[in-house]
Specification:
The protein is elongated. It has helices at about 20-25, 25-35, 45-60, 100-115, 125-130, 135-140, 165-180, 200-210, 255-260, 270-275, 300-305, 320-335, and strands at about 10-15, 65-70, 75-80, 85-95, 120-125, 145, 160-165, 185, 190, 195-200, 215, 225-230, 240-250, 280-295, 315, 335-340, 355. It folds into 2 domains: about 10-185 and about 340-355, Gcn5-related N-acetyltransferase (GNAT) (Aminopeptidase, 3-Layer(aba) Sandwich); about 190-315, Hypothetical protein (Archaeosine Trna-guanine Transglycosylase, Chain: A, domain 4). The chain is α+β, with helices and mostly antiparallel strands. The protein is built from 12 helices and 17 strands.
């Protein structure tokens, strides 16, 4: 059984910057802008580009931004422009942040975010970076580069590279299990251990805070203090959030109702039907509940991962299910904010282009 990660003090917070951040000039938006503008020496018009194109594009939804913060200090940034030909407009990673797979992470998240519309993906970068990191780009399907028609960069020839979206998407899916095995949503590990399946009605009450106790007729106390993924049954049929099982209390149904009746989210009559004539039931005390922005349907997870996942019935352990583990990781990665475990010495290709920007 994989245990929850004990996240070290130094962690990376990677945030997707969208319309609300840009409209309200959030701290994360300002961190993105600040880091992008550090490339001004190589790109003299970069501040104008950001304020007149990126900022407006973020507000309208035409563009998406990403910023990674180490202890709330911006260390990596990326901007993409949506479209049938999607453009990775800017990728910048602080040299001190190498060996953290941030390049893989940014490219993968950008590919996932444009999966419904992109047919091709392109970006520009300095010739020196292409030559130095060609292996990384090749791994995402970018096999060649040519001189860009417009040159914005000083002192280094700017190239462009383009590939079919299917190529970068396939590469991104293959990287998911290894790449996201270190991630967490908020302060919680993505290696949740299990999937807990619930009917949509009770699950909605859990997310609303009106239900904090889930009743099961069979459940192990070994899941205490473990993080679980929450699966909404038909008609939603998808991963919808996460929670921690703080305690698992085993007792007679009458005793459980006496202590937790107001927290179970149903009437006594409904409860009696659920527990039947059993002498012992389990009360799962839920805490730290996090709802996804939108449930991620099982059909979409099957499509994205190229698998046929079994539908969870009551609960499903991830111990021997690599497919569902990848699905849990992917569903969380598609949400708005993720946290990355800091780790050094990882032998993975890194995208360390410090100044690659396309003004378009």
């Amino acid at each position: 059984m994989q245990q929850p990660l004990d996240l070290p003090q130094d962690t990376l917070r990677l945030v997707r910057i969208g319309q609300l951040d840009a409209q309200h000039c959030s701290d994360d938006f300002l961190s993105l802008r600040s880091l992008v503008l550090t490339s001004e020496e190589a790109y003299p018009r970069i501040s104008r580009w950001f304020d007149t194109k990126v900022s407006i594009g973020l507000r309208t939804g035409e563009r998406l931004g990403y910023v990674a913060l180490m202890n709330e200090q911006a260390i990596a940034a990326a901007v993409l422009k949506r479209g049938a030909t999607t453009k990775f407009c800017h990728v910048k990673i602080d040299p001190a942040a190498r060996n953290r797979s941030l390049g893989d992470l940014l490219f993968t998240l950008m590919a996932l975010d444009v999966r419904h519309q992109a047919r091709r993906v392109r970006f520009t970068l300095p010739e020196s970076v292409w030559e130095e990191r060609k292996t990384f780009f090749n791994a995402f399907g970018f096999v060649g580069a040519e001189k860009a028609g417009r040159q914005y960069r000083l002192f280094d020839t700017e190239l462009y590279s383009e590939t079919a979206f299917s190529d970068i998407f396939q590469a991104s899916k293959e990287k998911l299990p290894r790449l996201f095995g270190q991630l967490a949503v908020g302060n919680h590990s993505l290696l949740t251990g299990a999937i807990l399946a619930l009917e949509p009605g009770p699950l909605e009450k859990i997310f609303a805070g009106r239900k904090t106790v889930e009743i099961r007729t069979r459940f192990s106390t070994s899941w205490e203090r473990r993080r679980v993924s929450l699966f909404a049954k038909h008609p939603i049929s998808g991963l919808a959030g996460e929670a921690t099982i703080s305690r698992v209390i085993q007792a007679h149904p009458d005793r459980v109702w006496e202590h937790f009746g107001s927290l179970i989210g149903c009437t006594r009559a409904e409860y009696d039907v659920c527990v039947g004539q059993r002498e012992v039931v389990q009360a799962l005390i839920l805490s730290d509940v996090q709802a996804f922005r939108d449930p991620v349907p099982l059909a979409q997870l099957n499509y994205l991962l190229g698998v046929d996942l079994p539908t969870p019935q009551s609960y499903l352990s991830l111990q021997n299910s690599d497919g569902w583990l990848a699905a849990v990781i992917l569903a969380a990665a598609l949400q708005g904010s993720i946290r990355v475990r800091a780790r050094t010495g990882v032998e993975t290709p890194q995208y360390v282009c410090r100044d690659s920007t396309e003004f378009a």
